[in-house]
Amino acid sequence: MDTNIASYFVKDTNAVLVERMQRAFVAQNIAISAMTRAEIRSGLELMEALDKRRRRIDLLVIEFPVLPWNTATADQFGRINAHLRRNGTPIGDMDTLIAAHASAEKLTLVTHNTRHFEKVLGLKVEDWMG
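Above: the chain's sequence. Below: its structure in token form.
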């Protein structure tokens, strides 16, 4: 799952997304990249202490399985990053890290930013917002 989907889930403004996330969690068919967790934690650290979304974010990163970063993922990042830069279509380091992780694990990346991630050749992408 991309960080933007986690953010939409935490905001609880899209019933379709919440339902799909809950079904996937119960089926144990969803995980987040260690890179997604890092982005979520960074955002959490920047939030005000009394922000009511903090508890929901904590639950998300505690309850959702986290895929560890490994050498295969690092190698995939190198290939994807070089390809995107050569073509003049970089998508940012964190997104490239998340895309590389999904690609290396042969998983589908759930994001609302499909046009952005479709620049990564061979990456399976789904938008659960609609």
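The mean pLDDT is 93.
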